[in-house]
Amino acid sequence: MNRRRTTLADVARAAGVSSTTASLVLSGRGAELRISEAVQDRVRAASSELGYRPNIVSIGLRKGTTRTLGLVSDTVATGQMAGDMIKGAIEAARERGFMLFIGETEGDPAAESALLEAMQDRQVDGILLTSMFTRARAVPKQLDRIPTVLLNTLPSSPTRYPAVVPDEVEAGRAAARLLLEAGHRSIHLVGAGPGPDDVAPDTVAGVERLAGIREVLHEAGLQPASAHMCDDWVPPQGFAAAQEVLAVDPSPGAIVCFNDRLAFGVYQALGEAGLRIPDDVSIVSFDDYPMAQWLRPGVSSFAIPHEQLGRRAIELLIAQVTGKPADAPEDGVVHRLALPLHARGSIAPVLAGA
User: Fold this and answer.
1) pTM over 0.85
2) Can you tell me the distance from the alpha carbon of 134 to that of 157, in angstroms, rounded to the nearest whole number?
3) What molecular function terms (GO) are annotated for this protein (predicted)?
4) How many CB atoms lie within 10 A of CB 58?
């Protein structure tokens, strides 16, 4: 049996005041408008006793906002690591008095279109369009009529929407610098080939990490000692690529793995070849999956700042929604967040004379 929702009129009747007076008291304006403490106490007591809850949607619509936001993703919520992106977004929204609705499309364009329409039918104030893996994509025309931020995705053509993504180029630079500063000059790549575009299809992270690595090596007057493209960054391909590295150089000085799953395979191949990490080979990687610390020794890895990405995207979206000129993001600006290094035991300095 459905219980009738308590209304403001019910509270006013129980307190013996007008609906206007009850509304003013419950909105916190009682003292400002000189409503007596006794009357305010009666209204609050009646509200508590009847279990009154204001209709937030109706209030929001009168004020031009529902204090709700929508997040439409491909597979973010079901991804183990990128779930932190959702967590960051939810917490940042809650701290600012907003609720976040989440919908997944599993990469189906029709499902995405339906979700965007449903979100807007429910009068959300803004939309986060999100991807599990950083990628470039077309932005749906449906978003032209609502504040939007792209999270972990880039527009495939110029757009007015701000985007929030990891700073993969700088992470690639930092990985190369880390090995150079340890004295390494023979640096092999596992996950990308020798050319600037030799990466797996649709991997923005691969393109940008490779660009950063190549830039720093070039500045040092170096090229990769070898480079091995993998079309799927998983342990078996890391294992096979490491065997190719060893065929080129039986004593490789250092290897950059383009993610931790590749690093897992590289560790196995080096172990089978009787090489020790980091005594014989130094390894650096990206993503900081749990396996990065499970390996022995743990692999030094640049972590995707998932939670911070979600938080920053919400901040930019709410700035659009509230229209505060000082905080509003510039159209089309890409906000890149640093990947912190989780240093472990996989890098050793080159010994003098080695």
Assistant:
1) no
2) 15
3) DNA-binding transcription factor activity; transcription cis-regulatory region binding
4) 10
Round to whole Å and give the CA distance between 212 and 174.
8
254 part of a folded domain:
yes
pLDDT at 61 over 70: no
Enter the tokens of residue 129.
């369009």
Compute the distance between CA of residue 60 and CA of residue 321 in angstroms, rounded to an integer. 13
Please indicate, yes or no, whether residues 46 and 105 belong to a single structural domain of this protein.
no
| Lookup: tokens for 122 | 């429910």
Q: Closest Cα partner for 210 from 184, 173, 159?
A: 173
Which residue type sits at 19?
S
Say how many domains are in the chain: 3
High-pLDDT (> 90) share of the chain, %: 50
Mean pLDDT for the chain? 87
Based on the fold, state whether residues 180 and 267 are members of the same structural domain. Answer: yes
CB neighbour class for 351 (10 Å; exposed up to 12, middle 13-18, buried from 19) = exposed
pLDDT at 1: 40
Residue 343 lies in a domain: no
**In a domain? residue 349:** no
pLDDT digits (tens, 9 = 90+) for 137-167: 888 888 888 999 999 999 888 888 999 999 9
pLDDT at residue 81 in the model: 62
Domain of 319?
66-161+306-337
295, 316: one domain: no
- What is the CATH classification number for the domain harbouring 49? 1.10.260
Q: Are residues 152 and 108 in the same domain?
A: yes
Query: Based on the domain organization, do 190 and 133 belong to the same domain?
Result: no
Q: Where are the alpha helices (DSSP H) in the chain?
A: 8-15, 19-26, 37-50, 56-63, 83-95, 109-121, 168-181, 204-219, 235-248, 260-272, 291-294, 306-322
- What number of H helices and E strands is found in the chain? 12, 12
